[in-house]
Amino acid sequence: MSYLPEIISVCVIAVFMSISPGADFVMVTRNSMIHDRKAGLYSALGISLAIWVHVAYSIAGLAVIISNSVVLFSIIKYLGAAYLIYIGWKTFQTKKQDRVIDTQEKATLSNFTAFKVGFITNALNPKTTIFFLSIFTQVVNADTPILLQLLYGAIISLAHLLWFSFVVICLTQPALLKRFNEYKTAIEKVVGVVLMGFGLKVAATSNP
Predict the structure, then answer these.
(1) Is the terminal CB of the chain with fewer CB neighbours within 10 Å at N or C?
(2) Total tally of structural domains belonging to the chain
(3) Would you state the pLDDT for residue 123?
């Protein structure tokens, strides 16, 4: 059996999964510009590794169960929504005195925290869950070898890592950061509102 059409389909979906706007993109933007490039890159790493959570339950056959269970999908959906609203509210509520500290002191987000934020955001992202439900219930054949399914996971994970690393590098260019710092207060408010908006959108996501 030739798996080439399946591989091509997964590669195309992986690209669209990574570049499509969503909570992952906003979170990486937030951590990159409000904190620093390292925070953004660790968040990108967290997102790419969280992909393996989706790979694991898909290979285990849970994708079919989740796609047919309103309760399980709703749990994932509302946890993800609550987390986005929480982070968005924290960003929106940044204290004024926290905005005027020295540039060298502003990067208070530890590597682990940045990684954790990226990881949780993707792991609880219903959009990613829906993509995986589609891939492993409609694209990947039931007879596809486990090793090949793991390769699919690696392709999707790598696509996310490369895309979001590229986004971080673009967003943390000195000229852009200089302009960002001029409007930092307003941008933080906007980012906070956008994250909360994504949280509400996630909560309203229809079951697959």
Answers:
(1) N
(2) 1
(3) 92
